[in-house]
Specification:
Elements lengths: L2 H12 L2 H19 L9 E4 L31 H23 L6 E4 L28
Parallel strand pairs: 1-2
Length: 140
Amino acid sequence: MNCEEVIQSGHAIINSQQFKDDLNGFVKAVVDKGRATTIGERFKVFVVGYAQFFNQETTQCNDVDLKPRWTPGTAQKLTVERRTAMNGLALAPNKALSDALDGFKDKGIYWVDYDQAFEGHRFCDRREPNPDVPETYFFN
């Protein structure tokens, strides 16, 4: 599979009714199990989503890749389109999680969206990859 096929496959899974049903069933099971303990109604879960990896507004990474040089195959460049698509793989499950958890607010389940905290600290906010840039939060 190439990069685009993997991204499409990920979206197909996330957007499937099976994924939504499984997610809702899982959250309900967590609530039921947690509330069955001595904590009862004080049971709380904070669900953390995914942060987008890339600044998709800049063009400075269009000729950059993250492929290790020792691996075979052709490197996939971090074009604006590819970065936008890959960021979608963070945004789509976040939306699915947020939607699923929305029905459980009164049960002590809370959605934590910390993606905004990564603004200015993503790949392609400056010339990447560069392990000497501590401002990039992802494995730099």
